[in-house]
Design goal:
The chain is of the alpha/beta class. 38% of the residues lie in helices and 21% in strands. β2 and β3 form a beta hairpin. α9 packs across α22.
């Protein structure tokens, strides 16, 4: 906020100044008692310091110097009364261009030789005083004066001329001193006792603009009568009215105003950003960029086997017939245990014998990794089957699900007797406030304090220290190891401090976890584990439309696999070095997951099976193909961007304040340029930068400056 110090000599002058300021309070500094208040005009708030110095240039100069040191003002105005020498009448106002120190000189035997010391008001204030003297706007500030007193000295004029200053009170035009001033300083139109000292203090502080403004309270004759009639009060009120009119038209240092608007805007926008207000718009923008990536090829390493609704109905009917023929009833009964490993329990999508047959078919094709993305009851014979497959070069990864205390669900336990650390991955997804999945879990710690988590078996052996790995990460690690590639390295065991990276041919890709600083446009209150941004593949297979469902190179049903023969497409497929995902994309068996591509048509929300495929593909492609992962901008750099764009907005509004249309065009161009910059960062450097908060800084700063300009225009128009 800009600051002005107003110097007065006597109480009457001090009180006249106080009429124009608000929130007046006392402050002390080195034995001095100051008044401090605020003055608002034309869109600017000024801090105003008031000093009463007493009579004399020495006093005025000394106390003005102290006031400058204390208030560090931009402007100093001396406001008070003076005696008129020539050309003026009672109640007129004089703004001094310069102040002669008439007592400076040399006294000889014959005469006094003048060596005048001249204090000059600064040019900016002199020019502003001249401009205001040509107008009558300042008279509107006199409405608080009683009309009876206005009648005493009507129709005041303002002169911008030199005045004289000394230590003597001149009360007669017949005095030798008066004649001396008239002869030696014949352009001075008024005389007073403090202005020279104030301008000396201002001269010693070059950063301060200064001017002396005096109201004519007497004409050096009939001084007592004039004072008794209230001329001093009228003169002080008019001098202060004109002084504040000059002050109101001053433009504070634009650097100070730009800095203030920039800092305030940065603070406001940063607070709004930290409260999460911008997150919905940021995520909409993120989804737009994801959709703009264009189509990509499906992942040739990935094959999906779907347990379709037709498969479920078909094998349920066949199982019912077998039960009836063997005099067994209901799906709770057990098959011939010599031919079947598992029970066909309620809720299972397929009979146990079909699942085993499917797995063995994939084993025969030398599949590298099988991911079983299905929830079903298992008995304790599954471990031996998994061990058998591993010996033959095929890894099987199962899923489990954490309990959800908020939604009061108990989760899903892993198969019994299967090592969770070795063969089970967490199937949970992280969805945002709008239900869309944009992030991928890598590792997540269990909440050992929750009762349901204590009962759940979906946790690693040392769950208090070791986070649970996700299904997609577990499948990826198994695949990399089975194909003789380096696995992702995990440094430090504690989840919040862990680093996960993959290195191939001296190229290093590190997974960047989202956290309280690395968040892009997210508002993340709590970070539940190690998770990264999910970069979807939008792929096309054959004549199908582009979709996130088409992540896998090939997709088969259970019947396609079990009924394949030498001429079938599945039989021709080489599954060596392939990942096969088995899942049930049926509403009652799998989650329906909205994505950034979701709409009402082809890209409606998809089943979790395909999302797992997207996540596995992202990790494997990053490790083996060096396909870049999405990174998120950091909060500290985002706040820096908010500051930069707030500064740009403030500067632009200052530069183009006379043309709103031009300002709108330039600000729009800056917005568009930053929008393109964010796109370049996303597509070329794979980094998601926040768009909304820096743009909010740009708009708020430029808008605030524009409102101030408009307010000044309106106020000036109302005052005219």
């Amino acid at each position: 906020m800009p600051c002005a110090v107003i110097i007065t000599a006597i109480r009457l002058e001090y009180e006249a100044v106080c009429r124009h300021i608000s929130n007046l309070k006392e402050e002390t500094y080195k034995g001095m008692v100051y008044g401090r208040g605020r003055f608002f005009a034309n869109g600017n708030w000024w801090t105003v310091g008031i000093v009463e110095t007493g009579a004399g240039n020495v006093n005025a100069g000394l106390k003005a110097e102290r006031a400058i040191a204390y208030f560090q003002p931009n402007v100093i105005l001396f406001v008070g009364v003076a005696g008129g020498i020539k050309d003026v009448k009672l109640g007129d106002v004089v703004a001094a261009t310069k102040v002669y120190g008439y007592e400076s000189g040399k006294e000889t035997d014959s005469n006094f030789q003048t060596r005048p010391e001249v204090g000059r008001s600064t040019n900016d204030l002199v020019e502003r005083a001249k401009a205001e003297a040509r107008k009558s706007d300042w008279l509107k500030r006199l409405k608080s004066i009683e009309k009876s007193k206005q009648d005493i000295v009507a129709d005041p004029k303002v002169y911008v001329e030199p005045i004289a200053s000394g230590e003597k009170v001149i009360a007669s035009k017949e005095s030798p001193l008066y004649q001396f001033i008239r002869n030696s300083y014949n352009d001075a139109i008024a005389v007073e006792m403090e202005g020279r000292g104030v301008l000396e203090a201002a001269y010693a502080n070059q950063q301060v603009s200064a001017i002396v403004i005096r109201g004519i309270s007497d004409l050096l004759v009939g001084k007592g009568e004039a004072d008794a009639a209230g001329s001093q009060e009228i003169a002080a009120l008019r001098a202060s009215a004109f002084a504040f009119e000059v002050l109101s038209k001053l433009e504070p240092n634009p650097v100070l105003k730009i800095g203030s608007i920039t800092l305030l805007t940065t603070i406001v926008v940063s607070i709004i950003r930290l409260l999460g207000v911008f997150q919905p718009l940021e995520l909409l923008y993120f989804d737009q960029m994801v959709r703009m990536q264009g189509s990509q090829d499906s992942d040739e390493r990935l094959v999906i086997v779907e347990i379709t609704e037709e498969n479920i109905n078909k094998y349920a009917e066949e199982y019912a017939k077998q039960n009836k023929q063997s005099n067994k009833s209901g799906p709770d009964a057990t098959h011939n245990k010599q031919n079947n490993i598992y029970q066909y329990n309620p809720g299972a999508s397929l009979p146990d014998q079909i699942i085993e047959k499917l797995l063995r078919k994939l084993l025969d094709k030398k599949t590298t990794v099988i991911g079983l993305d299905i929830y079903r009851p298992y008995d304790n014979k599954l471990k031996s089957l998994a061990d058998e497959f591993k010996k033959k070069g095929t890894e099987i990864v199962f899923i489990c699900k954490f309990p959800d205390a908020e939604n009061k669900t108990s989760g899903q336990n892993p198969p019994p007797d299967v090592s969770v650390d070795e063969r089970v991955g967490l199937s949970d997804f992280i969805d945002d406030y709008d239900g869309i999945t944009r992030r991928q879990i890598i590792r997540m710690g269990t909440n050992s304090n929750e009762y349901e988590h204590k009962k759940s078996k979906c946790k690693p052996f040392d769950y208090q220290k070791t986070p649970m790995e996700s299904f997609s990460f577990k499948v990826t690690q198994k695949y990399l190891y089975a194909t003789n590639q380096r696995k992702y390295e995990i440094i430090q065991n504690l989840d919040k401090n862990s680093r996960i990276y993959h290195e191939k041919d001296k190229n290093k890709i590190e997974l960047q976890p989202l956290d309280q600083n690395v968040k892009g446009g997210y508002h993340l209150k709590e970070i539940g584990g190690f998770h990264i941004l999910l970069r979807y593949r939008f792929a096309k297979k054959g004549n199908e439309k582009y979709s996130v469902r088409n992540i896998a190179h090939k997709t088969y049903s259970v019947d396609d696999v079990l009924n394949s023969d030498s001429s079938s497409d599945f039989n021709k497929l080489d599954l060596k070095d392939k990942i096969v995902l088995i899942g049930t994309p049926v509403e009652s068996y799998d989650n329906i997951v909205p994505t950034p591509f979701s709409d009402e048509g082809q890209n409606s929300p998809v089943y979790g099976l395909y999302i797992q495929g997207q996540m596995i593909s992202q990790l494997v492609s990053a490790a083996l193909d060096q396909k870049p992962l999405l990174k998120a901008g950091t909060l500290d750099k985002e706040i820096l961007l908010i500051f930069i764009f707030s500064l740009i907005g403030s500067i632009l509004a200052q530069l183009f304040k006379e043309s709103l249309k031009t300002l709108v065009i330039i600000v729009s161009a800056n917005f568009f340029a930053y929008y393109l910059f964010c796109l370049v960062m996303f597509f070329q450097f794979h980094t998601w930068l926040s768009l909304i908060s820096p743009v909010a800084g740009l708009l708020l700063a430029s808008g605030s400056m524009t409102i101030l300009v408009d307010m000044k225009f309106i106020l000036r128009k109302n005052n005219s």
